[in-house]
Every structure is written in structure tokens, then in C-alpha cells.
Amino acid sequence: MYLTETVDAAIWGAELARGDAKERIYIVEPTGDFEDDPNVTDKKFKGNPTKSYRTKQPLKIVAEAINWNGHSPEVLQAMLDNLKKLEKAGIKAIE
């Protein structure tokens, strides 16, 4: 599971998630250990400035975030295009 302390990172996570389901962001509490997200920590940014984490433990859903604004279609498409470019270069940017 992926979790973050920042709204912007949560929005990117929702927008880049695979599948056709409605994008959702939940307010959660971890129930166990978690670690820095390997996609961003020290691979792209020194430390963990996005405060993004991964866990294999369940997350307790406290609430659903509503009325959040996603990135513009142009910004989202630019990100998707960049991810495709990285993939063609043999770089798996998102694990």
C-alpha cells in the first residue's frame, strides 16, 4: 500500500493508479510498520521530501478526502508522456 503525508503526492498517486475506477484519496492511519517509498526516496529526491511511504500492513481508513482538485489535463498528460519515455528507455519509474 502507498501512503503519503502530502496532498499533492496523494493526488499524483490517485491520478497515476492503474485501472478505470474512480480516483479516490483516503485519510488513513497505519496499523504497522512503514518505510520510505522506494520510487522517490534517494532515487529522485534526497531524503523523502514528498513524505511518501509504503507498507505491507493494513491501513485504517478514517475518512475519504473529497473536493480535491487534480492536475490539469495538460500537466497529467505531460507526466504520462514522460513515464512512457522513461519506460521506452528501460527505466521503470514506478514500481
Automatic annotation (TrEMBL):
Residues 1-68 form the Rifampin ADP-ribosyltransferase domain. It comes from the Bacteria. Pfam families: Arr-ms (PF12120). NCBIfam families: rifampin_ARR (NF033144). This is NAD(+)--rifampin ADP-ribosyltransferase.
